[in-house]
Amino acid sequence: MGNYPEAAFKLILIILCISGLLYANSSSERTFSITRPPVEKDIVEETLIDLQAPKERVSSLNRWIRSASGVTQVDPMLLVCLLHTESRFRKEAVSEKGYRGEAQTKRFSEFSSVNILEGAEILRDKLSLSKGDMFEALARYKGGKDKEEARKQAREVLKLYKIQLERRGLWNRQ
Fold first, then answer.
1. How far is CA 2 from CA 23, 100, 105, 114, in A?
2. Are 47 and 80 contacting, i.e. CB atoms less than 8 angstroms apart?
């Protein structure tokens, strides 16, 4: 019975992820609601390619990031930049502290879609706690808003985010 809570948690995350995929593929897709309106071209896929995500995973990563964004309402471009800095999109990545997966979270699943959703939910919660302040939320995600290393890593994500938006002509919409 000791694994019951973990198994239940994984099942809930999988259900949320599947519902997010259904939502993200519906005609009412609203995946860019936090920072900007949707755009016509697939900037998430372009950004994954630009940031050298493994070619064989670009399509799947794009779907999973859009799904997680649909569930959490966190900007998918911000998620792409966060995942790049956390793991370079590698499922097998493990941090010095033992965090695992693409989003480098405490909870790890064999399913990348669940790992990405977990990271998006954590970031959403950090954004809420930080009253929408992206820098503070990212610093909290990276280890603590008052820790210099976490603040440095948060600046790295925001710099990458700005560069990617500028490359796609979207920075002025901020």
1. 33, 21, 21, 21
2. yes
